[in-house]
Amino acid sequence: MNAAGNKPRILISKVGHDGHDRGAKVLATMLRDAGMEVIYLGAHQAPEAVIVTALQEDVDIVGISYLGGDHLKYTPKLLKLMKEKGLGARPLIVGGIIPRQDIPLLKEQGVAEVFVPGMPFSQIVDFINEKTSAK
Amino acid sequence: MSSNVDKMAEAYMQKVKRPMTWSGIPLEEEYRPEDLSGFDYSKSLGNAGTYPYTRGIHANMYRGRFWTTREVCGFGTPADSNKWLKFQINEGVGGLNVIFDLAGSMGLDSDHPAVEEDVGLGGCPFTSIQDMDELTADIPLDKVSFSLIAGDPMTLSAYVAVAQNRGIDISKLVGTIQNEPLHARWCAADARFYPLDLCYKQSTDIIEFCTRSIPKWTPVNINLYDLRETGINAVQEIAFGFSIAMAHLDAVIARGLSIDDFAKRFAFYCSCHIDLFEEVAKLRAARRMWARLIKEKYKAQNPQSWWFRFAVHTAGSSLTYQQPMNNIIRIAYEALAAVLGGAQSLHACSFDEPVALPTRDSQRLAVRTQQILAYETGVANVADPLGGSYYIETLTDKIEEEATKILDQIEEMGGAIGAIKSGWFENEINGASLRFQRQIENGDRILVGVNDFTIPPEEEPIVGTHQIPPESGPLQISNVKAFKASRDQSKVIEALRKVRAESQKGDKFNLMPVSIEALKAGATRAEIQGTIREVYGYPYDPLEVIEHPFPSIKE
Predict the structure, then answer these.
(1) Helix pair B512-520, B525-535: axis angle to 10 deg
(2) What is the pTM of this model?
(3) From the list B117, B122, B187, which residue is nearest A73 (CB)?
């Protein structure tokens, strides 16, 4: 439950034109099964469209899946847009094919957490629950 | 210490927990002669090189020629990719294999405003004949086997145009184009980029053009690999892939070609996942099923039409981010399965693929993995070395039986196209992805180093250090802009006007020749494709961001 006593609302998307959407789809389904409200946008999304949707849907948290090596390019754009739209306080989480040496860079940019392949799914659920209940 | 000793005592007692294949086929403790009662050698197997080719398409298999060592590559700019190809040639590969970038995979030019961040990612960019010329610089196209992992006709058109400009007789070109836009609908792009009617028309154009003009070229490479990577199992891989292949066959036959004109040039791109015996049995079953299908259902007469020719890509999805060195072992087993299964060509993954682009070292290791298999292990000496094993033959039969059931089910839905339109394929794929993940989450599937035998993250080695040069995307974009500015605009307009006129001649009129000419005149892939798209009632730009740059051609 989030602070307002509702189910956590999370937006799951990819940005750019990498089409590897298996991870994002599986995560979206598993978060839904864990009782969350999931807004799933899928692949081929522009950063602007993702953040506008996040605003319209009033999500508690935004999750972006990267498998195209484009995480360091798109993340600052997304964070800047979130700030501009007044979503600066909502966490952005990132998952996918992220080399270990890039994880601290993403966190410096302002990403709340990075989930790499093979991490147990429960870690993601726990993290979202913790972040959204503390909102 | 004592807890470690307890753990060791436990480890000592560990045993097989899940006596079934990864596709869920239950297994006996042992296979015996009675499991093959009624087995008819000539009907089920035949010698290698004879129908139904279960044991291999050639009698002498690798004594005639090893499989082609062919590692997928492409990144940055065409010049970056060209350098990598030369590195591979130097390491002793037998063929080249280039994948194109995210912008190109959607048929967009590198200077499209919506793909700025995607240029040079996931493959080599290609916008114009100049890019293709740079990608293939110093490589004698009449002497190499070149595979183009592309789903649209412009890539092959540019390759042909470059060869012609170099004075090469194109009938001598050897290589492969994937030309499989259907799979892209669930593996790479959405319907905006690949409208069904147009993608079938153009796929058929390629097959027809190759059959007539580049007879040694493989004009379609049915991509079972990408399908498998979604999480479906070995049985589904055959069934889904064959249904797509049949849709292509039917489309080409509808164009007026006879099955024996083109079926011999069909090829497949299969996965080899981690269940070694199941993968070998899958490849054997596929060979037998294809031979029967093409001979009995499609009535092909030429034995070469019955051949299931295939490349293998070891399974990227079987590799792990954690303890990445373990992937070296996984890749070796999967490559072994490919060779035991009789593959014609092999991409062995690089062990750092789940982390980033391969480095020179990891790519070299992938090539060496293949060379050790070929030159040291002796596994290539004899055709179908596992043939006749009670287990392998039982498993081959079982996979054929199960795959046939699914194939029949898809046929009832109207084949692959019906199954795509109704959303059945997508549902099956999504269900499989989820099932795979749940098996890992609940420990039903052990991934060494991931959900068992783990180490603390701080002990994990740093790999995946090969970053795409950050300047290559902007460089490619500025090169494309400069190319567009320097062309003879009147020639481009004239060429595109002709593309438009020929596109209006109906879907059976082949647009490859006019596309080749337009590329030579300086038109780009997206300009040519956009011109064709408009005639077919689709927006010039699949993303509907830009307009046709030469609207005067419509007057």
Answers:
(1) 140
(2) 0.94
(3) B117
Whether residues B355 and A25 touch (CB distance < 8 A) is answered with: no
Of A22, A121, A122, the CB nearest to B231: A22
Q: Partners of B73 in the beta sheet?
A: B98
d(CA B431, CA B153): 32
Instruction: Provide the token pair at B187.
Output: 């593996």
In our burial notation (b when 16+ CB lie closer than 10 A, e otherwise), range B189-222 reads beeebbbeebbbbbbbbbbbbbbeebeebbbbbb
Choose among B217, B222, B297, B298: nearest CA to B253.
Answer: B298
Q: How far is CA A40 from CA A29, A43, A65, A83, in A?
A: 9, 10, 11, 21
Return the CATH fold of A9-127: Rossmann fold (3.40.50)
Q: Which amino acid is at B304?
A: Q
In what helix (H) or strand (E) does residue B108 lie, and over which residues does it extend? none
Q: Sorting pLDDT into bands at 50, 70 and 90, what band is B39?
A: very high
pLDDT confidence bin for A4, thresholds 50/70/90:
low
- Residues of chain A with Cβ-Cβ distance to B356 below 8 Å are 69, 97, 99
pLDDT at residue A132, rounded to an integer: 87
Closest C-alpha among B338, B413, B394, B341 to residue B349: B338
- Chain A residues in contact with B105 (beta carbon < 8 A): 17, 19
Query: pLDDT tens for residues A11-30?
Result: 999 998 888 888 999 999 99
From the list B189, B447, B462, the residue facing A101 with the nearest CB is B462
Instruction: Say if the Cβ atoms of A43 and B229 lie within 8 Å.
Output: no
Chain A residue closest to B460 (CA)? A100
Counting one residue from chain A and one from chain B, the pairs whose CB atoms sit within 8 A come to 89
- Asked if B541 and B107 count as a contact pair (C-beta separation under 8 A), the reply is no
**Average pLDDT of the residues of chain B:** 94
Identify the structural domains of chain B with CATH numbers, from first to last: 61-457 (3.20.20.240), 491-554 (no CATH)
Q: Is B195 on the interface with A (CB under 8 A)?
A: no
Nearest alpha carbon to residue B184 among B494, B420, B490: B420
Taking only the tens place, the pLDDT of each residue in B109-141 is: 999 998 888 899 989 999 999 999 999 999 999
For chain B, give the longest Cα–Cα distance: 86
A38-92 pLDDT, tens digit per residue, is: 999 988 899 999 999 999 999 999 999 999 888 999 999 999 999 999 999 999 9
Whether the Cβ atoms of residue B69 and residue B119 lie closer than 8 Å to each other: no
DSSP letter for each residue of B138-205? T--TTTSEEEEE-SSHHHHHHHHHHHHHTT--GGG-EEEE---HHHHHHHT--TTTS-HHHHHHHHHH
